[in-house]
TrEMBL record, chain A:
Subunit structure: Part of an enzyme complex containing four subunits: a flavoprotein, an iron-sulfur protein, plus two membrane-anchoring proteins, SdhC and SdhD.
Location in the cell: Membrane
Protein name: Succinate dehydrogenase hydrophobic membrane anchor subunit
Pfam families: Sdh_cyt
Chain's role: Membrane-anchoring subunit of succinate dehydrogenase (SDH).
Record's bilayer topology term: Multi-pass membrane protein
Annotated source species: Sphingomonas longa
Automatic annotation (TrEMBL), chain B:
Family statement drawn from the similarity comment of this UniProt entry: Belongs to the cytochrome b560 family.
Source organism (scientific name): Sphingomonas longa
Coiled-coil ranges per UniProt: none
Protein name, UniProt field: Succinate dehydrogenase cytochrome b556 subunit
InterPro entries, per database record: SQR/QFR_C/D, Succ_DH_cyt_bsu_CS, Succ_DH_cytb556, SuccDH_FuR_B_TM-su
Spans traversing the lipid bilayer: 27-49, 69-88, 114-133
Assembly and binders: Part of an enzyme complex containing four subunits: a flavoprotein, an iron-sulfur protein, plus two membrane-anchoring proteins, SdhC and SdhD. The complex can form homotrimers.
Compartments it resides in: Membrane
A Pfam family reported for this protein in Swiss-Prot or TrEMBL: Sdh_cyt
Length: 125, 136
């Protein structure tokens, strides 16, 4: 018994690429769980001022899913934008766009994670 | 890539197909995904960085999208409703994609119904989300 995915792995002209497809689905699932958590958490907040938001994110039980959300969502949209670039950019510009995409994802992701860590590590025990 | 011959025929594109809901939600999935990956990601990170930066930087973020009384301004409404509608639409078409991945839902009527349902669900969820926020 082999799954459909197992049968097609390594086939096709590129001989690879199934991992991209699979990771996109996997992160779709984790995005769904983490985004549902974020939306419900936002709805449940008593207020949206600085102190309330800051106190909320200082908790490790908020900082951890928030970091996981950034990792999952950013990895998902890096693959999604890669697909869009590959569909519409056919010449050398594709390389330039891919490099810019990687800089964008890694740079923005770093800012997000350091921000969350700064808040939760800055909490008074 | 570089060796591509421009004289080769392109696959038939948008112009020759009769539009249907399945086509619309496929494009919506790509548009909402690209929008959230660029505008949405920047705003999420601005919100996180502003919160980490202190009360002053958080006020700058908040004042960009709200009026003094606390409600959303015009930019706030466009961004907030645009992003939540995009998120719910992408989430619903994403679930549709996972269903299609199993090999189910390719019969014409079923496929059309699932496509329509994603749009009904995304609008409903967006309305409920903002109603709840507005009422509480």
């Amino acid at each position: 018994m082999r799954s459909s995915l197992g049968r097609v792995r390594g086939l096709g002209s590129a001989k690879e690429g199934a991992h991209h497809w699979w990771q996109h689905r996997l992160t779709a699932g984790s995005n769904f769980l983490l985004m549902t958590w974020l939306l419900i958490s936002i709805l449940r907040q008593p207020a949206y001022d600085y102190t309330t938001m800051r106190l909320w994110m200082e908790s490790a039980w908020v900082a951890i899913p928030m970091i996981l959300l950034v990792l999952s969502v950013f990895w998902h949209f890096r693959m999604g934008l890669q697909t869009v670039i590959e569909d519409y950019q056919h010449d050398e510009s594709r390389v330039v766009f891919m490099i810019l995409l990687n800089f964008f994802v890694v740079g923005l992701g770093a800012i997000a994670i350091v921000s969350i860590l700064k808040i939760t590590f800055g909490a008074a025990a | 890539m570089a060796s591509r011959n421009p004289a080769r025929p392109l696959s038939p594109h948008l112009g020759i197909w009769k539009w249907g809901p399945h086509m619309l939600v496929s494009i919506l999935h790509r548009v909402t995904g690209s929008g959230m990956a660029t505008v949405g990601a920047c705003l999420l990170v601005w919100w996180l960085a502003a919160l980490a930066g202190g009360a002053e930087s958080y006020a700058t973020f908040r004042d960009t999208f709200t009026v003094e009384a606390g409600g959303l301004n015009i930019l706030g409404y466009i961004v907030a409703i645009g992003l939540t509608l995009s998120l719910f639409q992408h989430m619903m078409t994403g679930i549709r994609h996972l269903v299609l991945d199993t090999g189910a839902g390719y019969e014409l009527k079923t496929n059309k119904m699932y496509a329509m349902l994603t749009m009904v669900a995304s609008v409903t969820l967006t309305v409920l989300f903002w109603l709840y926020l507005g009422i509480k």
